[in-house]
Amino acid sequence: MTTADARDESEVAGSARELLAAMMLEPAGRVTPSVYETGRVVADAPWLTGHDRRLRYLLDAQRSDGGWGGAGGYAVVPTVSAVEALLGTLRGAPASAPTGLAAAASRGVGALAGWLERGTPLPDTPAADLIVPALVERINDHLTYFAAQGDRRFADGLRALPGVDRRRLDAVHALLGAGRPVPQKLLHAFEVLGPVARRHHDVLPVAGAVGASPAATAAWIGDPATPGTDPEVLAYLRTAVGPLDGPVPCCTPITVFERAWALSSLARAEVPVRPAPKLIADLAAALGPQGVSTGPGLPADADTTSVTLYVLARLGHPVDPASLLRFDLGTHFCTWQGEDGRSVTTNAHVLEALGWHARHTAAGASRYGGRAAALAGWLGDEQQPDGSWADRWHSSAYYATSCVVTALDRYAPAGIGGPAVDRAVDWLVAAQRADGGWGRWAGTAEETAYALHVLLGVRRPVRPGVPEAIRRGLRHLSEVDGQHADPPLWHDKDLYTPVLIVRAAVLAARQLAMTRSDLVNNPDRSPLRPRTAVS
Q1: How many CB atoms lie within 10 A of CB 118?
Q2: How many CB atoms lie within 10 A of CB 175?
Q3: 160 in Cβ contact with 143 (< 8 Å)
Q4: What is the C-alpha to C-alpha distance for residues 145 and 142, in angstroms, rounded to an integer?
Q5: What is the mean pLDDT of residues 31-55?
Q6: CA separation for the pair 132, 120 (Å, rounded)
Q7: Residue closest to 441 by CA, chosen among 395, 407, 380
Q8: pLDDT, tens digit, for every residue of 336-350?
Q9: What angle is formed at CA 321 by the lines to CA 325 and CA 295, rounded to 5 degrees?
Q10: Element (DSSP H or E) covering residue 14
Q11: Which of 44, 80, 225, 353 has its CA 20 to 30 A from that of 506?
Protein backbone atom coordinates (compact mmCIF):
# COMPACT_ATOMS: atom_id res chain seq x y z
CA MET A 1 0.00 0.00 0.00
CA THR A 2 1.36 3.41 -0.94
CA THR A 3 1.59 6.32 1.47
CA ALA A 4 -1.33 7.95 -0.32
CA ASP A 5 -3.39 4.76 -0.02
CA ALA A 6 -2.63 4.52 3.69
CA ARG A 7 -3.67 8.15 4.14
CA ASP A 8 -6.91 7.54 2.21
CA GLU A 9 -7.68 4.39 4.20
CA SER A 10 -7.16 6.27 7.44
CA GLU A 11 -9.51 9.00 6.23
CA VAL A 12 -12.19 6.49 5.19
CA ALA A 13 -11.90 4.64 8.50
CA GLY A 14 -12.14 7.91 10.41
CA SER A 15 -15.25 8.94 8.45
CA ALA A 16 -16.75 5.51 9.09
CA ARG A 17 -16.17 5.87 12.83
CA GLU A 18 -17.92 9.23 12.73
CA LEU A 19 -20.83 7.60 10.92
CA LEU A 20 -21.09 4.86 13.54
CA ALA A 21 -21.02 7.48 16.29
CA ALA A 22 -23.81 9.42 14.57
CA MET A 23 -25.98 6.29 14.48
CA MET A 24 -25.53 5.91 18.23
CA LEU A 25 -26.26 9.58 18.91
CA GLU A 26 -29.31 9.68 16.61
CA PRO A 27 -30.97 6.30 17.13
CA ALA A 28 -34.11 7.25 15.18
CA GLY A 29 -32.00 7.65 12.04
CA ARG A 30 -31.27 10.55 9.73
CA VAL A 31 -33.79 11.03 6.91
CA THR A 32 -34.50 13.97 4.60
CA PRO A 33 -37.86 15.76 4.91
CA SER A 34 -40.81 14.80 2.74
CA VAL A 35 -43.11 17.27 0.99
CA TYR A 36 -45.87 14.68 0.97
CA GLU A 37 -45.63 13.81 4.65
CA THR A 38 -45.17 17.42 5.72
CA GLY A 39 -48.29 18.41 3.77
CA ARG A 40 -50.32 15.74 5.57
CA VAL A 41 -49.11 16.89 8.98
CA VAL A 42 -49.97 20.49 8.04
CA ALA A 43 -53.47 19.35 7.10
CA ASP A 44 -54.17 16.97 9.98
CA ALA A 45 -52.16 18.43 12.87
CA PRO A 46 -52.06 22.25 12.61
CA TRP A 47 -51.85 22.25 16.42
CA LEU A 48 -48.45 20.53 16.38
CA THR A 49 -45.35 22.58 17.17
CA GLY A 50 -43.68 23.93 14.03
CA HIS A 51 -46.83 24.41 11.91
CA ASP A 52 -45.69 27.76 10.50
CA ARG A 53 -42.27 26.32 9.64
CA ARG A 54 -43.94 23.46 7.80
CA LEU A 55 -46.00 25.89 5.75
CA ARG A 56 -42.89 27.88 4.94
CA TYR A 57 -41.10 24.68 3.92
CA LEU A 58 -43.90 23.87 1.48
CA LEU A 59 -43.77 27.34 -0.04
CA ASP A 60 -40.00 27.29 -0.36
CA ALA A 61 -39.98 23.79 -1.90
CA GLN A 62 -42.36 24.62 -4.75
CA ARG A 63 -40.82 24.35 -8.20
CA SER A 64 -41.04 27.01 -10.90
CA ASP A 65 -43.61 24.91 -12.82
CA GLY A 66 -45.95 24.89 -9.82
CA GLY A 67 -45.24 21.34 -8.71
CA TRP A 68 -43.29 19.75 -5.91
CA GLY A 69 -40.98 16.77 -5.68
CA GLY A 70 -39.00 14.75 -8.20
CA ALA A 71 -39.05 14.44 -11.96
CA GLY A 72 -41.95 13.15 -14.04
CA GLY A 73 -44.56 11.12 -12.20
CA TYR A 74 -42.60 11.42 -8.96
CA ALA A 75 -44.05 14.93 -8.62
CA VAL A 76 -47.71 13.89 -8.46
CA VAL A 77 -47.90 12.53 -4.90
CA PRO A 78 -46.00 15.38 -3.20
CA THR A 79 -47.90 17.95 -5.25
CA VAL A 80 -51.39 16.69 -4.38
CA SER A 81 -50.35 16.70 -0.74
CA ALA A 82 -48.90 20.20 -0.78
CA VAL A 83 -51.84 21.67 -2.73
CA GLU A 84 -54.44 20.07 -0.46
CA ALA A 85 -52.59 21.29 2.63
CA LEU A 86 -52.37 24.87 1.33
CA LEU A 87 -56.01 24.97 0.25
CA GLY A 88 -57.11 23.45 3.56
CA THR A 89 -55.10 26.06 5.46
CA LEU A 90 -56.68 28.87 3.45
CA ARG A 91 -60.12 27.43 4.05
CA GLY A 92 -59.73 26.67 7.72
CA ALA A 93 -57.62 29.58 8.99
CA PRO A 94 -57.56 32.25 6.27
CA ALA A 95 -56.65 35.12 8.57
CA SER A 96 -53.45 33.51 9.79
CA ALA A 97 -52.33 32.04 6.45
CA PRO A 98 -48.91 33.28 5.31
CA THR A 99 -48.66 35.51 2.27
CA GLY A 100 -48.32 33.60 -0.95
CA LEU A 101 -50.36 30.52 -0.05
CA ALA A 102 -53.15 31.24 -2.53
CA ALA A 103 -50.75 31.90 -5.40
CA ALA A 104 -48.77 28.75 -4.61
CA ALA A 105 -51.96 26.66 -4.42
CA SER A 106 -53.18 28.05 -7.75
CA ARG A 107 -49.93 27.19 -9.49
CA GLY A 108 -50.01 23.74 -7.95
CA VAL A 109 -53.58 23.08 -9.11
CA GLY A 110 -52.60 24.14 -12.62
CA ALA A 111 -49.64 21.78 -12.67
CA LEU A 112 -51.72 18.90 -11.33
CA ALA A 113 -54.50 19.45 -13.86
CA GLY A 114 -52.02 19.19 -16.72
CA TRP A 115 -50.38 16.03 -15.39
CA LEU A 116 -53.67 14.28 -14.68
CA GLU A 117 -55.16 15.23 -18.03
CA ARG A 118 -52.11 13.84 -19.81
CA GLY A 119 -52.29 10.64 -17.77
CA THR A 120 -48.81 11.03 -16.29
CA PRO A 121 -47.95 7.53 -15.03
CA LEU A 122 -47.31 7.11 -11.33
CA PRO A 123 -44.11 5.34 -10.26
CA ASP A 124 -44.42 2.29 -8.02
CA THR A 125 -44.24 4.13 -4.71
CA PRO A 126 -46.15 2.94 -1.63
CA ALA A 127 -49.89 3.72 -1.62
CA ALA A 128 -49.74 6.09 -4.62
CA ASP A 129 -52.92 4.51 -5.99
CA LEU A 130 -54.68 5.40 -2.72
CA ILE A 131 -53.09 8.77 -2.05
CA VAL A 132 -53.82 10.43 -5.38
CA PRO A 133 -57.58 9.74 -5.59
CA ALA A 134 -58.08 10.55 -1.89
CA LEU A 135 -56.37 13.94 -2.17
CA VAL A 136 -57.81 14.83 -5.59
CA GLU A 137 -61.24 14.40 -4.02
CA ARG A 138 -60.33 16.71 -1.12
CA ILE A 139 -58.77 19.29 -3.45
CA ASN A 140 -61.94 19.40 -5.57
CA ASP A 141 -64.03 19.82 -2.42
CA HIS A 142 -61.88 22.82 -1.46
CA LEU A 143 -62.21 24.31 -4.95
CA THR A 144 -66.00 23.92 -4.83
CA TYR A 145 -66.03 25.74 -1.50
CA PHE A 146 -63.91 28.65 -2.77
CA ALA A 147 -66.02 28.96 -5.91
CA ALA A 148 -69.20 29.15 -3.82
CA GLN A 149 -67.60 31.82 -1.64
CA GLY A 150 -66.47 33.89 -4.62
CA ASP A 151 -63.05 34.10 -2.98
CA ARG A 152 -61.14 37.02 -4.51
CA ARG A 153 -57.82 35.25 -4.10
CA PHE A 154 -59.03 32.89 -6.80
CA ALA A 155 -60.54 35.53 -9.06
CA ASP A 156 -59.31 33.76 -12.19
CA GLY A 157 -61.10 30.62 -11.13
CA LEU A 158 -59.71 27.16 -10.54
CA ARG A 159 -61.23 24.32 -12.52
CA ALA A 160 -61.76 21.02 -10.80
CA LEU A 161 -59.09 18.39 -11.25
CA PRO A 162 -59.97 15.50 -13.58
CA GLY A 163 -61.10 12.28 -12.02
CA VAL A 164 -58.62 9.51 -11.30
CA ASP A 165 -58.99 5.78 -10.76
CA ARG A 166 -60.26 5.27 -7.22
CA ARG A 167 -61.17 1.60 -7.34
CA ARG A 168 -58.45 0.60 -4.89
CA LEU A 169 -59.42 3.37 -2.48
CA ASP A 170 -63.10 2.44 -2.70
CA ALA A 171 -62.21 -1.21 -2.06
CA VAL A 172 -60.31 -0.27 1.10
CA HIS A 173 -63.22 1.82 2.39
CA ALA A 174 -65.62 -1.04 1.61
CA LEU A 175 -63.38 -3.49 3.43
CA LEU A 176 -63.30 -1.40 6.58
CA GLY A 177 -66.97 -0.50 6.26
CA ALA A 178 -67.78 -4.20 6.40
CA GLY A 179 -65.95 -4.45 9.72
CA ARG A 180 -62.92 -6.29 8.36
CA PRO A 181 -59.56 -5.83 10.12
CA VAL A 182 -57.26 -3.08 8.92
CA PRO A 183 -54.52 -4.64 6.74
CA GLN A 184 -51.21 -4.02 8.48
CA LYS A 185 -49.57 -2.88 5.25
CA LEU A 186 -52.14 -0.02 5.07
CA LEU A 187 -51.02 1.50 8.36
CA HIS A 188 -48.04 3.36 6.87
CA ALA A 189 -50.50 5.35 4.71
CA PHE A 190 -53.44 5.32 7.13
CA GLU A 191 -53.99 9.03 6.53
CA VAL A 192 -55.60 8.28 3.14
CA LEU A 193 -58.77 7.23 5.00
CA GLY A 194 -59.47 10.76 6.22
CA PRO A 195 -62.04 10.91 9.05
CA VAL A 196 -62.27 7.10 9.12
CA ALA A 197 -58.73 7.02 10.48
CA ARG A 198 -59.58 9.01 13.62
CA ARG A 199 -58.94 6.79 16.65
CA HIS A 200 -59.88 3.74 14.60
CA HIS A 201 -60.67 0.99 17.10
CA ASP A 202 -58.72 -1.62 15.16
CA VAL A 203 -55.44 0.32 15.25
CA LEU A 204 -53.15 0.57 18.25
CA PRO A 205 -50.00 2.73 17.98
CA VAL A 206 -46.68 0.97 18.53
CA ALA A 207 -44.14 3.03 20.48
CA GLY A 208 -46.47 5.97 19.87
CA ALA A 209 -46.52 5.55 16.08
CA VAL A 210 -49.07 4.36 13.57
CA GLY A 211 -47.19 2.68 10.75
CA ALA A 212 -43.93 4.49 11.62
CA SER A 213 -45.44 7.52 9.86
CA PRO A 214 -45.99 11.04 11.22
CA ALA A 215 -48.83 11.53 8.72
CA ALA A 216 -50.59 8.29 9.63
CA THR A 217 -50.15 9.03 13.33
CA ALA A 218 -51.46 12.60 13.02
CA ALA A 219 -54.51 11.36 11.09
CA TRP A 220 -55.20 8.71 13.72
CA ILE A 221 -54.93 10.98 16.76
CA GLY A 222 -57.08 13.79 15.37
CA ASP A 223 -57.78 16.44 18.02
CA PRO A 224 -55.25 15.97 20.84
CA ALA A 225 -57.69 17.56 23.28
CA THR A 226 -60.02 14.58 22.95
CA PRO A 227 -60.21 12.64 26.21
CA GLY A 228 -58.01 9.58 26.36
CA THR A 229 -55.26 10.92 24.13
CA ASP A 230 -52.18 8.73 24.48
CA PRO A 231 -49.23 10.87 25.64
CA GLU A 232 -46.85 8.45 23.89
CA VAL A 233 -48.47 9.34 20.55
CA LEU A 234 -48.03 13.05 21.21
CA ALA A 235 -44.42 12.43 22.20
CA TYR A 236 -43.82 10.52 18.95
CA LEU A 237 -45.16 13.40 16.85
CA ARG A 238 -43.18 16.01 18.75
CA THR A 239 -40.03 13.95 18.29
CA ALA A 240 -40.77 13.50 14.57
CA VAL A 241 -40.88 17.25 13.94
CA GLY A 242 -37.89 17.99 16.14
CA PRO A 243 -34.76 16.99 14.18
CA LEU A 244 -35.87 18.83 11.03
CA ASP A 245 -37.28 21.84 12.90
CA GLY A 246 -40.78 21.47 11.47
CA PRO A 247 -40.82 19.38 8.26
CA VAL A 248 -41.14 15.64 8.73
CA PRO A 249 -39.88 12.50 6.95
CA CYS A 250 -42.13 9.75 5.59
CA CYS A 251 -40.86 7.09 7.95
CA THR A 252 -39.39 7.47 11.40
CA PRO A 253 -37.71 5.92 13.27
CA ILE A 254 -35.61 3.83 10.88
CA THR A 255 -33.21 2.51 13.51
CA VAL A 256 -32.77 -1.09 12.32
CA PHE A 257 -33.00 -0.20 8.63
CA GLU A 258 -30.34 2.51 8.85
CA ARG A 259 -27.95 0.45 10.95
CA ALA A 260 -28.32 -2.73 8.91
CA TRP A 261 -27.84 -1.07 5.52
CA ALA A 262 -24.97 1.17 6.59
CA LEU A 263 -23.10 -1.60 8.40
CA SER A 264 -23.59 -4.05 5.54
CA SER A 265 -22.04 -1.59 3.06
CA LEU A 266 -19.03 -1.08 5.32
CA ALA A 267 -18.69 -4.83 5.94
CA ARG A 268 -18.85 -5.80 2.26
CA ALA A 269 -16.05 -3.36 1.46
CA GLU A 270 -14.14 -4.42 4.58
CA VAL A 271 -13.77 -0.87 5.88
CA PRO A 272 -11.45 -1.27 8.90
CA VAL A 273 -13.83 -0.22 11.68
CA ARG A 274 -15.56 -2.16 14.41
CA PRO A 275 -19.09 -1.21 15.50
CA ALA A 276 -19.74 -0.71 19.19
CA PRO A 277 -20.99 -3.90 20.88
CA LYS A 278 -24.28 -2.14 21.63
CA LEU A 279 -24.95 -1.57 17.93
CA ILE A 280 -24.51 -5.26 17.25
CA ALA A 281 -26.49 -6.30 20.32
CA ASP A 282 -29.39 -3.99 19.37
CA LEU A 283 -29.54 -5.46 15.87
CA ALA A 284 -29.55 -9.00 17.22
CA ALA A 285 -32.25 -8.11 19.76
CA ALA A 286 -34.47 -6.66 17.04
CA LEU A 287 -34.70 -10.02 15.24
CA GLY A 288 -37.67 -12.14 16.24
CA PRO A 289 -39.25 -15.36 14.96
CA GLN A 290 -41.15 -13.31 12.36
CA GLY A 291 -38.10 -11.30 11.33
CA VAL A 292 -37.78 -7.57 11.83
CA SER A 293 -39.59 -4.50 10.49
CA THR A 294 -38.25 -1.20 9.22
CA GLY A 295 -40.08 0.80 11.87
CA PRO A 296 -42.60 0.51 14.73
CA GLY A 297 -46.05 -0.60 13.59
CA LEU A 298 -44.87 -1.83 10.20
CA PRO A 299 -45.02 -5.52 9.33
CA ALA A 300 -41.84 -7.55 9.48
CA ASP A 301 -40.30 -7.66 6.02
CA ALA A 302 -37.84 -9.89 4.21
CA ASP A 303 -35.68 -6.96 3.13
CA THR A 304 -34.81 -5.56 6.56
CA THR A 305 -34.68 -9.07 8.00
CA SER A 306 -32.21 -10.38 5.42
CA VAL A 307 -29.87 -7.38 5.59
CA THR A 308 -29.87 -7.61 9.39
CA LEU A 309 -29.09 -11.34 9.23
CA TYR A 310 -26.32 -10.77 6.70
CA VAL A 311 -24.59 -7.99 8.60
CA LEU A 312 -24.74 -9.91 11.89
CA ALA A 313 -23.09 -12.86 10.17
CA ARG A 314 -20.39 -10.65 8.66
CA LEU A 315 -19.72 -9.12 12.07
CA GLY A 316 -19.24 -12.52 13.68
CA HIS A 317 -22.70 -12.97 15.23
CA PRO A 318 -24.58 -15.27 12.84
CA VAL A 319 -28.25 -16.02 13.43
CA ASP A 320 -30.00 -18.83 11.59
CA PRO A 321 -32.08 -17.26 8.76
CA ALA A 322 -35.13 -19.49 9.28
CA SER A 323 -37.31 -16.38 9.78
CA LEU A 324 -36.90 -15.64 6.06
CA LEU A 325 -38.69 -18.83 5.03
CA ARG A 326 -42.09 -17.35 5.88
CA PHE A 327 -41.59 -14.94 2.97
CA ASP A 328 -40.77 -17.69 0.46
CA LEU A 329 -43.29 -17.82 -2.38
CA GLY A 330 -41.57 -20.71 -4.12
CA THR A 331 -40.34 -18.72 -7.12
CA HIS A 332 -38.98 -15.79 -5.09
CA PHE A 333 -39.43 -14.04 -1.73
CA CYS A 334 -42.04 -11.38 -1.04
CA THR A 335 -41.03 -8.26 0.86
CA TRP A 336 -43.98 -8.77 3.20
CA GLN A 337 -47.05 -10.97 3.22
CA GLY A 338 -49.64 -9.69 0.74
CA GLU A 339 -47.17 -7.57 -1.25
CA ASP A 340 -48.36 -6.29 -4.61
CA GLY A 341 -45.50 -6.72 -7.07
CA ARG A 342 -42.01 -7.98 -6.35
CA SER A 343 -38.61 -6.59 -5.45
CA VAL A 344 -35.31 -7.74 -6.92
CA THR A 345 -33.31 -5.93 -4.22
CA THR A 346 -35.22 -7.72 -1.47
CA ASN A 347 -34.42 -11.01 -3.18
CA ALA A 348 -30.77 -10.04 -3.67
CA HIS A 349 -30.52 -9.37 0.06
CA VAL A 350 -32.22 -12.69 0.83
CA LEU A 351 -29.68 -14.42 -1.42
CA GLU A 352 -26.86 -12.82 0.57
CA ALA A 353 -28.32 -13.96 3.89
CA LEU A 354 -29.06 -17.52 2.76
CA GLY A 355 -25.88 -17.74 0.71
CA TRP A 356 -23.66 -16.76 3.62
CA HIS A 357 -25.13 -19.48 5.82
CA ALA A 358 -25.01 -22.06 3.04
CA ARG A 359 -21.33 -21.33 2.52
CA HIS A 360 -20.18 -20.99 6.14
CA THR A 361 -22.26 -23.45 8.18
CA ALA A 362 -22.81 -27.17 7.73
CA ALA A 363 -26.51 -26.94 8.56
CA GLY A 364 -26.90 -23.94 6.25
CA ALA A 365 -25.38 -25.79 3.31
CA SER A 366 -28.01 -28.52 3.41
CA ARG A 367 -30.92 -26.33 4.44
CA TYR A 368 -30.38 -23.20 2.35
CA GLY A 369 -27.92 -24.07 -0.44
CA GLY A 370 -30.51 -25.27 -2.94
CA ARG A 371 -32.86 -22.39 -2.23
CA ALA A 372 -30.07 -19.87 -2.67
CA ALA A 373 -29.10 -21.37 -6.03
CA ALA A 374 -32.70 -21.29 -7.25
CA LEU A 375 -33.11 -17.70 -6.09
CA ALA A 376 -29.94 -16.73 -7.98
CA GLY A 377 -31.56 -18.17 -11.11
CA TRP A 378 -34.69 -16.08 -10.52
CA LEU A 379 -32.60 -12.93 -10.14
CA GLY A 380 -30.78 -13.72 -13.36
CA ASP A 381 -34.13 -14.05 -15.15
CA GLU A 382 -35.16 -10.60 -13.86
CA GLN A 383 -32.22 -8.86 -15.57
CA GLN A 384 -33.25 -6.21 -18.10
CA PRO A 385 -32.20 -6.63 -21.75
CA ASP A 386 -29.59 -3.87 -21.37
CA GLY A 387 -27.91 -5.70 -18.46
CA SER A 388 -29.36 -3.65 -15.58
CA TRP A 389 -31.98 -4.38 -12.92
CA ALA A 390 -34.77 -2.06 -11.73
CA ASP A 391 -36.58 -2.14 -8.41
CA ARG A 392 -39.57 -0.80 -6.53
CA TRP A 393 -37.64 0.58 -3.53
CA HIS A 394 -35.30 2.93 -5.34
CA SER A 395 -35.70 5.15 -8.38
CA SER A 396 -32.25 4.33 -9.76
CA ALA A 397 -31.26 1.19 -11.63
CA TYR A 398 -27.72 1.68 -10.29
CA TYR A 399 -28.86 0.80 -6.77
CA ALA A 400 -30.79 -2.27 -7.91
CA THR A 401 -27.96 -3.43 -10.17
CA SER A 402 -25.38 -3.03 -7.41
CA CYS A 403 -27.51 -5.05 -4.96
CA VAL A 404 -28.12 -7.89 -7.40
CA VAL A 405 -24.60 -8.07 -8.81
CA THR A 406 -23.07 -8.10 -5.32
CA ALA A 407 -25.27 -11.05 -4.36
CA LEU A 408 -24.84 -13.01 -7.58
CA ASP A 409 -21.08 -12.49 -7.70
CA ARG A 410 -20.60 -14.02 -4.26
CA TYR A 411 -23.40 -16.53 -3.81
CA ALA A 412 -24.66 -17.71 -7.22
CA PRO A 413 -23.42 -20.81 -9.05
CA ALA A 414 -20.84 -19.72 -11.61
CA GLY A 415 -22.97 -20.71 -14.59
CA ILE A 416 -25.82 -18.51 -13.39
CA GLY A 417 -24.08 -15.52 -11.86
CA GLY A 418 -21.11 -15.05 -14.16
CA PRO A 419 -22.84 -14.18 -17.44
CA ALA A 420 -25.36 -11.91 -15.70
CA VAL A 421 -22.59 -10.07 -13.85
CA ASP A 422 -20.63 -9.56 -17.07
CA ARG A 423 -23.68 -8.09 -18.83
CA ALA A 424 -24.22 -5.72 -15.89
CA VAL A 425 -20.59 -4.58 -15.98
CA ASP A 426 -20.84 -3.90 -19.72
CA TRP A 427 -24.01 -1.87 -19.14
CA LEU A 428 -22.32 0.23 -16.47
CA VAL A 429 -19.34 1.00 -18.70
CA ALA A 430 -21.69 2.07 -21.51
CA ALA A 431 -23.94 4.12 -19.18
CA GLN A 432 -21.18 6.26 -17.65
CA ARG A 433 -21.79 9.98 -18.14
CA ALA A 434 -19.40 12.36 -19.81
CA ASP A 435 -18.40 13.81 -16.44
CA GLY A 436 -17.41 10.36 -15.17
CA GLY A 437 -20.40 9.87 -12.90
CA TRP A 438 -23.49 7.72 -13.06
CA GLY A 439 -27.08 8.74 -12.42
CA ARG A 440 -30.65 8.39 -13.65
CA TRP A 441 -31.26 12.12 -14.08
CA ALA A 442 -27.77 13.48 -13.46
CA GLY A 443 -24.54 12.16 -12.04
CA THR A 444 -24.72 11.76 -8.26
CA ALA A 445 -22.28 10.65 -5.60
CA GLU A 446 -24.73 7.98 -4.45
CA GLU A 447 -25.28 6.38 -7.85
CA THR A 448 -21.61 6.69 -8.78
CA ALA A 449 -20.77 4.80 -5.59
CA TYR A 450 -23.15 1.98 -6.56
CA ALA A 451 -21.56 1.69 -10.00
CA LEU A 452 -18.10 1.58 -8.43
CA HIS A 453 -19.23 -1.15 -6.01
CA VAL A 454 -19.80 -3.32 -9.06
CA LEU A 455 -16.78 -2.36 -11.13
CA LEU A 456 -14.37 -2.61 -8.20
CA GLY A 457 -16.00 -5.42 -6.29
CA VAL A 458 -16.82 -8.24 -8.68
CA ARG A 459 -14.43 -11.16 -8.88
CA ARG A 460 -14.74 -11.84 -12.60
CA PRO A 461 -12.12 -11.29 -15.32
CA VAL A 462 -11.82 -7.59 -16.06
CA ARG A 463 -14.14 -6.49 -18.87
CA PRO A 464 -13.11 -4.04 -21.62
CA GLY A 465 -13.29 -0.41 -20.54
CA VAL A 466 -13.55 -1.14 -16.84
CA PRO A 467 -10.21 0.35 -15.67
CA GLU A 468 -10.81 3.66 -17.42
CA ALA A 469 -14.43 3.78 -16.20
CA ILE A 470 -13.21 3.22 -12.64
CA ARG A 471 -10.64 6.00 -12.81
CA ARG A 472 -13.13 8.46 -14.30
CA GLY A 473 -15.73 7.45 -11.74
CA LEU A 474 -13.35 7.94 -8.83
CA ARG A 475 -12.37 11.37 -10.10
CA HIS A 476 -16.03 12.33 -10.33
CA LEU A 477 -16.73 10.97 -6.86
CA SER A 478 -13.88 12.98 -5.35
CA GLU A 479 -15.18 16.13 -7.04
CA VAL A 480 -18.83 15.84 -5.99
CA ASP A 481 -18.68 14.01 -2.64
CA GLY A 482 -19.78 16.43 0.05
CA GLN A 483 -20.07 19.38 -2.34
CA HIS A 484 -23.87 19.36 -2.51
CA ALA A 485 -26.78 17.17 -1.50
CA ASP A 486 -27.82 14.54 -4.01
CA PRO A 487 -31.51 14.46 -4.97
CA PRO A 488 -33.67 12.00 -3.01
CA LEU A 489 -33.80 8.67 -4.83
CA TRP A 490 -35.30 6.17 -2.37
CA HIS A 491 -38.96 5.16 -2.57
CA ASP A 492 -41.39 5.82 0.22
CA LYS A 493 -44.66 7.66 -0.22
CA ASP A 494 -42.35 10.43 -1.43
CA LEU A 495 -38.74 10.20 -2.58
CA TYR A 496 -36.29 10.50 0.31
CA THR A 497 -32.66 10.02 1.29
CA PRO A 498 -31.54 7.86 4.24
CA VAL A 499 -28.51 10.09 4.77
CA LEU A 500 -26.18 7.78 6.68
CA ILE A 501 -26.96 4.78 4.47
CA VAL A 502 -25.93 6.79 1.42
CA ARG A 503 -22.84 8.05 3.21
CA ALA A 504 -21.83 4.49 4.03
CA ALA A 505 -22.22 3.53 0.36
CA VAL A 506 -19.85 6.32 -0.69
CA LEU A 507 -17.28 5.34 1.96
CA ALA A 508 -17.52 1.72 0.81
CA ALA A 509 -16.72 2.77 -2.76
CA ARG A 510 -13.67 4.67 -1.60
CA GLN A 511 -12.49 1.66 0.44
CA LEU A 512 -12.93 -0.66 -2.54
CA ALA A 513 -10.80 1.68 -4.63
CA MET A 514 -7.95 1.23 -2.15
CA THR A 515 -8.47 -2.54 -2.02
CA ARG A 516 -8.19 -2.62 -5.80
CA SER A 517 -5.45 0.01 -6.09
CA ASP A 518 -3.52 -2.28 -8.44
CA LEU A 519 -6.42 -2.15 -10.88
CA VAL A 520 -6.90 1.59 -10.44
CA ASN A 521 -3.22 2.49 -10.77
CA ASN A 522 -1.84 -0.33 -12.95
CA PRO A 523 -4.73 -1.69 -15.00
CA ASP A 524 -2.54 -3.64 -17.43
CA ARG A 525 -1.25 -5.83 -14.59
CA SER A 526 -4.65 -6.93 -13.29
CA PRO A 527 -6.40 -9.21 -15.79
CA LEU A 528 -8.18 -11.12 -13.02
CA ARG A 529 -9.90 -10.19 -9.76
CA PRO A 530 -8.52 -11.68 -6.57
CA ARG A 531 -11.00 -13.43 -4.33
CA THR A 532 -11.59 -11.70 -1.03
CA ALA A 533 -10.87 -13.60 2.17
CA VAL A 534 -14.39 -13.15 3.51
CA SER A 535 -17.63 -13.35 1.54
Answers
A1: 9
A2: 14
A3: yes
A4: 5
A5: 96
A6: 12
A7: 395
A8: 988 888 999 999 999
A9: 85
A10: helix 3-25
A11: 353
